[in-house]
Amino acid sequence: MANWQGAILTTKGKALQAKVEAGTTKLALTKMKLGNGVISGSQTLEGLTDLVSPQQDITISSITPNSNGTCNIEGVVTNTSLNTGYYLKELGLYATDPDAGEILYAITTDSNPDYLQASGSATVVSESLNMTIIISNASSVTATIDPSGLVTVSDLAMHNTDINAHATLFAAKLNKSGDTATGLLKLATDLITNLSTNIPQTDNSGTLAPTAWIQNVLSNLVSNTAVTWSSNNFSCPALGINGLMAQNGYISFGPLFGGLILQWGYNYVHHGVASPASTIVTFPIAFNTAYSAVFQEAAPCTTCEYKTVTALLNTSFTATMQDNANAGDSYFYWMAIGK
């Protein structure tokens, strides 16, 4: 998992920052760059003028100044047209110095880098990269933004919180001219009307279902999808699912999942030294067809010679085990599957 360290300014980055804070220039960010290099010998991150081993240029897709004096820089990395995969070990942020040209402004490294696969692999990667820097004021930062960049996480977040994001679409669907309530009522009425004129009844009469029938179906669907509880038992009538949430319990997934039933529990075998012993485990509910049952000691048993299911019925199974060193009760967890 990626573990990017805090970004630090390079020597040239500090010189540019001094000019920005003096008001003689703006911080003009140009791009980000990814690499797979690691500093060695007498090298320091502050002294770098470029990444140790640059692999990809990343265009900046957005800059977001924050009220706490920081600024989030975002870019999008993709493996499209990437000929050779590499580990994402270093990330650089570049800016234009009015005296020195484009410089490596800030750099961060990753001690546990992710691997970016080449474009010929089965996986197509497209993810956002973020770097946070400290700024003196929002107006002092500019960036070269790629207008054809991919939609980023921040773009999507802004879209999702914009109440006017789909104003045109809603207006068309609601067929309204300023009256939201009237428009919503018309939308709901149209839905019921369309259903009532296009869905046949279930009595094989061939006639179309009346509006009242459709309303009853929708009402029943809404009420039946709720999960109801009685002590530790639950059920969802619309999906046919029910179960018991307890130490010895089950979930019956119903016809939607082919009648699958999963059961579990906790039990024990009482045995003497060096002699096998058995116990019958009764299922919380009976299977129509039991497929498999397994069990495992609640605590590791280094002296157990064997443990096995010696009989599997639709209502129970027999757990048999032998402990060559200890007499007494051996507790175990079990699970069974069937339908």
**Strand order in space, largest sheet:** 12-13-14-15-16-21-18
Helix amount:
10-25%
| Largest sheet geometry | 7 strands, antiparallel
Subunit organisation of the chains: single chain
Give me the secondary-structure category.
Answer: alpha+beta
- Rounded to the nearest angstrom, the distance between the terminal CA atoms is 40 Å
Total DSSP helices: 5
Order of helices and strands: EHEEEEEEEEEEHHHHEEEEEEEEEE
Round the Cα radius of gyration to an integer and report it. 33 Å
Percent of residues in beta strands: 35-45%
Count of β-strands: 21
Summed up, the domain count is: 2
Calculate the mean pLDDT score and round it: 79
Q: What coarse outline follows from CA principal-axis ratios?
A: elongated
Stretches where pLDDT is under 50 for at least 5 consecutive residues are: none
Structure in a nutshell:
This protein is α+β, with helices and mostly antiparallel strands. It folds into two domains: about 10-160, no CATH class; about 240-339, Immunoglobulin-like (Sandwich). It contains five helices and 21 strands.
Could you please describe the fold and organization of this structure?
The chain is α+β, with helices and mostly antiparallel strands and 339 residues long. It has two domains: 8-159, no CATH class; 241-338, Sandwich (Immunoglobulin-like), CATH 2.60.40.3940. Helices cover 18% and strands 39% of the residues. Strands 12-13-14-15-16-21-18 form a seven-stranded antiparallel sheet, with no helix packed on it. Strands 1, 2, 3, 7, 8 and 11 form a six-stranded mixed sheet that branches. Strand 12 (228-230) and strand 13 (233-236) form a beta hairpin. The longest helix has 19 residues, at 180-198. The model has no long low-confidence stretch (mean pLDDT 79).
